[in-house]
């Protein structure tokens, strides 16, 4: 094989965004080794600059003619570009809220940023992984970095406990997922790429062989752990409560987006033979997640645990789009992830600010906060109301789009459960808002009564203020001015051959998936 032919098959330019992140990571790492603590002045901005350049590179790769790279093990189609962009954006938003928090704990900021960029790399590669080895390596890169971030506050016993729980449950989940992938490898006759595995299953001309069903169960268990779906959610409340808050903010969006990207690509590509079975399982997971997440959140006394159960419930809403499998369903899921990025990270920014100033995250301690910190009260109120789906905020339009897509597809039960649980969620979100705003001065909590003077000139607080303002503005306007996000979500689905073929199959269920149909997807991807 000559060099030119090898270079064309590698098509390494597709991973240019990830290459930029790697270079940024090395610059921060080496800069910290050389400059020591003085590097704190520039490493956060270098990190945000590098991640922003990666997003610019993703924009230029939109609708690329040749999305396959590295002999088909990675695919840079529009679906992967959107998910990689969401993960990189969540990392960028996490950096400003980390500066003051990490420095105040006495640990190294540059090391934190390096580990976070490693997790970002894992999530970005996972979003475009197209064979079993790439999927597992990317998943473990994301997972191991997440364990390290969770236990980053080494002097905090709660952080150590959270990291240990996350590691043990995550290791068991990875083992289960790996066993499922080994079954796929064996049952397909040694195939590695996803569409080749699917072709071998369809060529076997069997309705639902038991081996594929067993592999599907193990794969779904691994995916459900990553997106924190009930009953694989046990790690979420404890990890959210014990981890450093910036880490929780990143995991709640970046890790969840990577999990859904994996779910779409793996389930749609590999399991067309058993699509009814995995749709049924994810319907049950969606209902359980929406009900348990929202009901248990009612009893929480800690803001971080409340947001943990809220995250579980949001995963249930997102799964509606995956279950219905229509163009509107996939688009609504991507759109909701885009707006969830702003409102959830904005909420965590407010929680970080409050904990930095008071040292607590108990909901009862927020009582009367409006009297002392109007900006923080306004920001947290808008983000929580958006998570609850109050119009005209971004969360309302996200849920409206998902529920409309579900209703159009005939998933009436899922939509009704979603509507009822959304009403339940509004109660616990508004309870926090009411506590901050409505309380009389004499009912102010002791923590708020002793609230320190609001100063933004302290080291690391100015970036946090900018991050809060941007998140609040985006949450407020992303709903009203949502057309560009709608267009982006719709185009990412309509320009992806894999999803187009799946949608056509969904529209004509009488026609069983064929080898020819799957081969046509390969050709469409290769020719683009």
UniProtKB/TrEMBL annotation:
It is found in: Cellular thylakoid membrane; Endomembrane system; Membrane. InterPro entries: NADH-Q_OxRdtase_suN/2, ND/Mrp_TM, Ndh2_N. Its EC number is 7.1.1.-. Residues 129-425 form the NADH:quinone oxidoreductase/Mrp antiporter transmembrane domain. It comes from the Bacteria. Its main location: membrane. GO terms for molecular function: NADH dehydrogenase (ubiquinone) activity; oxidoreductase activity, acting on NAD(P)H, quinone or similar compound as acceptor; quinone binding. It holds the Pfam family Proton_antipo_M. One of its GO terms (cellular component) is plasma membrane-derived thylakoid membrane. GO terms for biological process: ATP synthesis coupled electron transport; photosynthesis, light reaction. Residues 12-99 form the NAD(P)H-quinone oxidoreductase subunit 2 N-terminal domain. The chain crosses the membrane at residues 12-35, 42-61, 81-102, 109-126, 132-152, 164-188, 208-228, 248-274, 280-299, 306-324, 330-354, 375-397, 409-430. It is a multi-pass membrane protein. It catalyses: a plastoquinone + NADH + (n+1) H(+)(in) = a plastoquinol + NAD(+) + n H(+)(out); a plastoquinone + NADPH + (n+1) H(+)(in) = a plastoquinol + NADP(+) + n H(+)(out). Keywords: Membrane, NAD, NADP, Plastoquinone, Quinone, Thylakoid, Translocase, Transmembrane, Transmembrane helix, Transport. NDH-1 can be composed of about 15 different subunits; different subcomplexes with different compositions have been identified which probably have different functions. NCBIfam families: NDH_I_N, PRK02504.1. This is NAD(P)H-quinone oxidoreductase subunit 2.
